[in-house]
Amino acid sequence: MSYTAETLQLLAPDGTLGYTEATEPYRARIDALDDGTLSEFYRQMAVTRRFDIEAGNLQRQGQLALWIPSLGQEAAQVGSGFAARAQDHIFPAYREHAVGRLRGLDLTRIIAMLRGLTHGGWNPAETGNFHLYTLVIGSQALHATGYAMGLRFDGLVGTGDPERDAAVLVYFGDGATSQGDVNEAYVFAQSYETPQVFFLQNNHWAISVPVSVQSKTPLFHRPRGFGIPSVQIDGNDVLISYAATAESLDAARSGQGPRFIEALTYRMGAHTTSDDPTKYRTDDEVAYWKARDPIARYETFLRVRGASEEFFAEVATEGNDLAADARRQTLAMEPPPAESMFRHVYGAEHPLMTEQAEWLARYEASFGGEA
């Protein structure tokens, strides 16, 4: 439906691995992956999907105000997430649950945010440089570009030291490409030759507006107009997602400037749980993409390679355990104390926050009785 002659793919929908003249340069990266890493790709995709489904169920049962599903986009996220190094910084939108998990984020932190119990913050230094979810569409592209400019100013690019050179990976959706912030980010990224990769997850729908309305040309052509090299990949193929992102991040870290990847994928579920996609999508379209499911095709690939039934059963058990634990933790969550709203406004204790917290305590006490 949206694939073009330039779409890069290694793993076909039937699970077969093949190379073309365009994808041959990625062969060495795939050949270098050991069985443990290949298995981990599947584990992370499958376990995150199980968690994602459980979180959606919790919302439907009144335990969350909202849930933002990532169903169908696991390969784009896991492949690209594996390509990042420890020193790289990740700027997500609000659907990158798999990437967050890869970087060490406890996914119940997302649940707490969407349950209304936190301001949505976590310390990126404690989550593998995985920065905060951004609900303002496209603004993270500017945040990422500014951070990448800082990496260049600090001399952390192009040193030749693989343990030191760093890059920024920023995620956004097709709807965000229509935002001024994203296009302004392209300008600054190219002007300053920032070490960053723009990773577009084109899931074909900006809520109820199809990508065909937003752009009459493939979206990966746009950054070329800003002077940013770009590729389009099959975002439901975890292998090309990994290889293309690794290639782009290596270029960015070495000082060659920004890169852009358009990963063609599909949002199998709703935009959020407040949305009803049956109002604007056809059954035929959904069936087309269901036949290209990222996890199903990769499972076929692994089985051909000799993966055992025990492995798949183990992953299923891990997913169920994670889902059950997430449910248990969610039901046990308590509202935070009112004073918690003052804790992280500033990086250190601040007299204004202390004064406001004390005023609130006096105000609530003035009513008497229990709070």
From TrEMBL:
Catalytic activity: N(6)-[(R)-lipoyl]-L-lysyl-[protein] + 3-methyl-2-oxobutanoate + H(+) = N(6)-[(R)-S(8)-2-methylpropanoyldihydrolipoyl]-L-lysyl-[protein] + CO2
Keywords annotated in UniProt: Oxidoreductase, Pyruvate, Thiamine pyrophosphate
The UniProt record lists the keyword Transmembrane helix: no
Domain Dehydrogenase E1 component: 43-309
Cofactor(s), by name: thiamine diphosphate
Enzyme class: oxidoreductase
One Pfam family, short name: E1_dh
EC number: 1.2.4.4
Record-level Gene Ontology MF annotations: branched-chain 2-oxo acid dehydrogenase activity; magnesium ion binding
Gene3D superfamilies noted in UniProt: 3.40.50.970
GO biological process, one term: branched-chain amino acid catabolic process
Protein family according to the UniProt entry: Belongs to the BCKDHA family.
Purpose: The branched-chain alpha-keto dehydrogenase complex catalyzes the overall conversion of alpha-keto acids to acyl-CoA and CO(2). It contains multiple copies of three enzymatic components: branched-chain alpha-keto acid decarboxylase (E1), lipoamide acyltransferase (E2) and lipoamide dehydrogenase (E3).
Name the UniProt record assigns to this protein: 2-oxoisovalerate dehydrogenase subunit alpha
